[in-house]
Amino acid sequence: MRSAGKQWTRINRKAKSRLSECWKMEKSRRILVLWASSILFLLLLSLLYIGEFGSYVVPSNQGGNETDQGEATGFACHSDFHTDVCVSNRSVRIDTLTMKVYAPFSQGMPQANRIIHPYPKKEDKWINRSVSSVQILQGNISPPPPCHYTHNVPAIVFSSGLFSGNVFHDFSELIIPLFLTSRHFQSRLHFIVTDFKPIFFDKYKKIFSHLSSYEVINPAANVGVHCFPGVVVGLHYHDHLALNTTAIPRGYSMLDFKQFLRESYNLKIQDLSQMEKPVLVLISRHNSRMFLNEDQMVTMMGALGFTVVVAKPDMMANIDKFSKIVNSGSVLVAAHGAGLTNIVFLPQGAVMVQVVGLSLEWPSTHYYGNPATEMGLNYLEYKIEPEESSLITLYGRDDPIITDPPSISASRGMLVGRAIYLGEQSFDINVTRFRNTLVKALELTGHSAPSG
């Protein structure tokens, strides 16, 4: 097994090396873009895609390995804890009624079936119920179904099921994965979307029109066999609101993603140097984790010299308009929750202030704190004291829910812990103590608090 692993590694490295050498040669001769035809250009991009993601290729269940099959057939798959992705740089036929992908590449090849739920988070127990599967039939399939629609650019197949509708999940599990999976195709591709949700696509239509020059294909409304010169089934996913630059074709970073959003929404402010006065955007929640003394907080913020914009849920619903509001802010303040996802629209050098409730340290850091720094933002957090949590009123000061939060999930289960600390907790902020955090935020924007 160890010998086979080493052999697989050598083959994989050779394949990547040959692809890299070919790419450098084409680039140096300035042929790829200037003289290649549209179809050849896209096929080369797809081949580059397989090469760039070569380190992800996994052993096949046929006894060989996907590196060999990738070279011979233009087909390779990647599988990890979160997602499965298969890539073909040769022609495929997709039956949108059954969501079967026919990939008959070489004569005499054994048929190898794969079933993929094309949504990042395959570890979630609900994925089989919420995300429609796509079946890939690879091998000598005769006769293949006839083409009803023929397209001259590749396709990416994914699902908008499961958690879409929550802005955090929208960006973390769909929009960012779409960017890192598709951006190098330079908008020359189709999206085929299972579990199609019109509200989701209406909300983010500017993003989709910037990623693709073609209308999104809803399989239920476009029944038939669609033929493409290549396909990607599934989306690559790295982490919460994250891009791993070293694992992306062309090395896109989170800063590149933010620039993409500025272009998509025509946002004018790139960094704080373009702003004269400090503007603070306060995310106002009306259910759990709401600020019970929000008016006092706003008064204190105004006294510090901030122009305060209170963003209520109805304002945040229109992302086209709200992205511009956030882009005009130098500081964004919010309790831990999905509203913090809007930091993707903040200018470089802006400040995110996260109010961290009881037992919410880990998700606060990993969902929003760490991503904020990768986005070129300054990150501050305000950890509440037990007296600032509404849970004291519900359970009493001496209850383990207040005195020992880690024990609750350990003894009662994670779902109970989430229900308590995410669903029942709100905040009565100590305005005097919170002021100190906002003074630091003000200084990070290049301003100082008024004396006294």
Could you describe the 3D structure shown?
The chain is an alpha/beta fold. 38% of the residues lie in helices and 16% in strands. It contains 17 helices and 16 strands. The protein has a six-stranded mixed sheet with strand order 5-6-4-3-10-7, with no helix packed on it. A five-stranded mixed sheet has the order 1-2-11-8-9. β12, α9 and β13 form a beta-alpha-beta unit. α1 runs antiparallel to α2 and α7 packs across α8. The N terminus is likely disordered.
User: Got a strand count?
Assistant: 16
Mean pLDDT, all residues: 85
What's the alpha carbon Rg, rounded to whole Å?
A: 25 Å
Strand arrangement, major sheet:
5-6-4-3-10-7
Secondary structure topology:
Layout: H1 2-29, H2 38-52, H3 66-73, E1 75-79, E2 84-88, E3 92-95, E4 100-103, E5 112-116, H4 127-130, E6 134-138, E7 149-150, E8 155-159, H5 167-182, E9 190-194, H6 198-203, H7 205-211, E10 225-228, E11 231-233, H8 254-265, E12 279-283, H9 294-303, E13 307-311, H10 313-316, H11 319-327, E14 331-335, E15 351-356, H12 361-374, E16 378-383, H13 391-395, H14 400-403, H15 405-412, H16 414-421, H17 431-444
Parallel strand pairs: 4-6, 7-10, 8-9, 8-11, 12-13, 12-14, 14-15, 15-16
Antiparallel strand pairs: 1-2, 2-11, 3-4, 3-10, 5-6
